[in-house]
Amino acid sequence: MVSISSEKLNSIADIFQRNIYRIPDYQRGFAWEKQQLEDFWEDLETLAPNHFHYTGVLTLEKVRKEVYQNWDDDKWLIEGKGYRPFYVVDGQQRLTTIIILIKVICDKLESVGKRLEYHSIDEIRDQYIYLSNPQGISKTYLFGYEKDNPSYEFLKTIIFGEKSNTNQKIETLYTANMEYAKHYFHRRIEQMQPEELNVLFSKVVSKLKFNVYEIEEDLDVFVAFETMNNRGKDLSKLELLKNRLIYLSTKLSYNNENERVTLRKNINECWKTIYEFLGKNKDNPLDDDEFLKNHWIAYFKYSRKTADDYVTFLLKEQFTVKDVMAKKLEVTDIQEYITSLQESVRKWYEIMNPELSKMDDEIILWLDRLKRVGHGAFPPLLMALLVRNKEPKEKLIELLKAMERYVFLVFRISQRRAFTGNSEFYGYARKYYRNEKEGDIDSIIEQINDWTKEYYDAKEFEKQIGEKFDIYDRDGFYGWEGVRYFLYEYDYSLFEKSKTNQKKLDWKEISHAKKGYVTVEHIFPQHANLECWENYFGQYDYEQKRVLCHNLGNLLTLSQPKNSSLQDDCFQDKKVQKEGNVGYFNGSYSENEVALKESWTPEEIRDRGLKLLDFLEERWGVVIGNREQKIRILKLEFLEKKQM
C-alpha cells in the first residue's frame, strides 16, 4: 500500500492506492466548463514525457466510522480490504475531470478492442473506477458523491455507464457540466491511436502531481472549506450559503437527534431542487446568484443602500454562528428559509421559462412577453405572486399587463434610467410575500400604472430616435433597443386578426440571428445599387436615403433568417422564394402584408411607419401625437415637403 504523504507530491496513481473518495454534501457539484477543460487539456498536451505538472492541492477529510457504517455498498472494501474513505474538501473539480477522462480512455480502448501497454481495461477500472463485491452484486465506486446528491446517480449511470436500480434521474447544471466534459474528452481522443492513448494515460496517472493534505480532526472542516482558495472557478454565493447553513446545522441546539438529521437532509434536498430547476432547461441555464439575489429581495427587507450587499447580509448578518450562540437563530428560522428557497426556485424556473410551464395559456403569454421585453425590477414580485398563488387568473393577468406596459413605455420608449422604480417594486415584493399591509395586488397594479403615467414621455422617444438619425452613420429605428420586441408584437397582432393557429415568428431566431443572416430586414436595402431601387429612390440624397432605409416603416421581421447578401435584391424578387429562402408571400404575417404591395416606395415607407405608430398607441394605450408629430418622429419631413 502506497500511503498519501504531504511530504512529497503525489500522482493520481498514488492517490488511488487503496483509498475511496466522496464529495461531501456541503460541496458544490462539478462546475468546470469549456474554458477550464481547455486549460486542463492544454496542460496535458504541452507536458513533456519526462516532466511532471503541478496540478494543485488536494485537501481531504477522513470519514469517521459512524458515517461510513451507513455506506452499505462500501463497508466490505473499507472494513474487509483496508481501504481508507476520505471526503474531498478541496480539489474535487480536478479530480472529477481526471476520473471522467480515465473513463473516456477506457471507453475508447474497449471500442477498438485494445489495451494499454502495461494496463488492461479491467485493471484501470479496478484502480480508478469501481471494485465489485465478490460476496454480492454491489459495486464500490472509488470516486463519487454521497448517495443523496443528484450527481451520484448521474456519475454512475451516464459517465461510468453502469446500471442503476433506481428510476431517479435528476439533472442539474452540475450534471450537465459532467456530460459536457465526457463529450469534450471523447472528441479530443477520437482519432488517437493506442500508442497515443498510452502516452496520454501515463501523463494523467503519473505526471499530474498534487500536494495532498489531510485535515486534522480538531479543525472545523466547514470553516476550512469556506476560506479555502478554490482554483479554477470560484464558488458561487449560493454554494457558499449552502456550506454556511450546513455548518450552522452542526452548531444549533436540537430537541433530539432526529431533528438534527432532518434539518441537514432538508438543506441537501433544498439545494438538490435548486440545481435541478436552475439547470432544467439546458438551452437556458439560470444563474445561481441571480436567483439568490431575487429571492433575498422578496424574503428579506430591501433597501437601496444594501442593494448589492445581499451576500454580506446573508453570510455576515443573517446566518452567523454568533446569532446561533445567542439563540437569535433557531432551527425553525433555517427551515422556513430553505422551504421558501425550495418553493421559489420552481416558480423562478417558470418565470424564466414560461413556455415550458403548465400554467394557464394567457398567463404564459404575458410572462413570455415580459421575458422578451425585459423583466426590469419585477422578478422578485413575480416570484412572490406565484409562490403565494392566491390571486384569480384575471387579476394576475391584469398585473402582468401593467408590468409589461411599464417596461416597454418607461424603458424602451421613454429611455428612463434602468433602476427607475426598483426600490418601490422590490418593497412591494416583500410586502406581498409577507402579506403585509399595502401589499395587496390592487395597490400594486395602481402603483405601477401611476409610475407608467408619470414616466412615459413621447418627447423622449422622439429625442432618442432623432439622435440615432442625426449622428452620422447611425442606424435610426434599426438601432432602437425596443425595435425587435415592437415588430414582434405587431406581427402577433396580425396573427390574432388572422384567426389561424399558426404562429410564424420564433423569438429566439429574431433576437439571436446567426452571423451572416438577418431576422429584421431593411426592405429598401442599405446598399441599394440596383436599377429597380434607383427608379424610386434615386432622387434623394445620401442622408435622405439613410433615413428612409433605417425608418420604422422599412423594417420587417422575417419568419426565417435570411442571408444578408439577399437584402439588396429588388422588391419583386424579395416577395418570392429565391435560393432556398422563403419570400415575403410565404413568410411572417408582416411579410405577407408587405407582399401585397405592388412596389416599395418612399411613400409606402412613410405610410407603414405611420401605421406602426398608430399600432403602438393602440397596443400600449398612449398618445404619440398627431400626424405631424409622427412624421417628425419618423424624420420624414423632407418627404412631406417634396409632395406639397
Task: Provide the fold topology.
Layout: E1 10-11, H1 12-15, E2 19-23, H2 34-45, E3 53-62, H3 65-68, H4 75-81, E4 84-90, H5 92-112, H6 121-128, E5 130-132, E6 139-141, E7 143-145, H7 150-159, H8 173-189, H9 194-207, E8 208-214, H10 221-227, H11 237-249, H12 257-278, H13 288-299, H14 310-318, H15 321-325, H16 331-352, H17 361-373, H18 379-388, H19 393-413, H20 422-433, H21 441-455, H22 458-470, H23 483-498, H24 507-511, E9 517-522, H25 531-537, H26 542-549, E10 555-563, H27 571-574, H28 589-595, H29 602-620, H30 627-633, H31 637-643
Parallel strand pairs: 2-4, 2-7, 3-8
Antiparallel strand pairs: 1-8, 3-4, 5-6, 9-10
Structural write-up:
The chain is of the alpha/beta class. It folds into three domains: 10-232, no CATH class; 260-456, no CATH class; 459-643, no CATH class. The protein is 55% helix and 9% strand. It has 31 helices and ten strands. The strands form three sheets. A six-stranded mixed sheet has the order 1-8-3-4-2-7, with helices on both faces. The protein has a two-stranded antiparallel ribbon with strand order 5-6. It has a two-stranded antiparallel sheet with strand order 9-10. A hairpin with a 6-residue loop joins β5 (130-132) and β6 (139-141).
